[in-house]
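ok here's the first one, seq then struct tokens
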Amino acid sequence: MAETKKIRIQYYRSAIATPVKHKLVVKGLGFTRLNQIVERVDNESVRGMVKAIPHLVRILEN
């Protein structure tokens, strides 16, 4: 079985003063606290979510 590609994302800037849609994207990616790193499947939907909030998250090298 082929291994699915993963993407590591870090939540490094607070979403306090951002629009509600940005806060929902942060929550949808699974972040609960600042500087948290999550690993998600690397697909178009996750990439689109990251692209919506590039000022709040960063992609880490695997």
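and now the second one, same deal
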Amino acid sequence: MTQSSNEITPLYGSTNPTPQQQATAEVKRFGSVIGLNPEKEQYYRELHANAWPTIVDIIRNANIRNYSIYITEIEGKKYLFSYFEYVGQNFDADMNRIAEHSETKRWWAQTDPCQFPLPSRSPGGQWSDMEMVFLME
């Protein structure tokens, strides 16, 4: 029997912390997904093979650790999966500082055309947030 997404209820337990537990955790984890335009894949790979040092510094100075991006193909379309850990105290302020930096804007001007946002993204967002269902530390 197939369930529709309207029937799915999140379940929390010893290996899946509640949203409240995640919000108060010392390390906050984020997964997100976005489409990758096939004609821009090679350029996207080139950009990330040698990311601009200033961009890496901006990300690191915003309390982001263990940041990784993966590529996968699903039913003939390419997607990017991003994972990072946030270790700061004010996520919104740190993300705003990244977004307002002139070098970030220049970087995004290069990377955004390589991507196509998914319908599930938040209003005004680029990447679609993913829900955590398992955590083993």
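notes on #2: The helical segments are 19-24, 41-49, 53-61, 91-100, 102-111. The CA atoms of residues 27 and 121 lie 23 Å apart.
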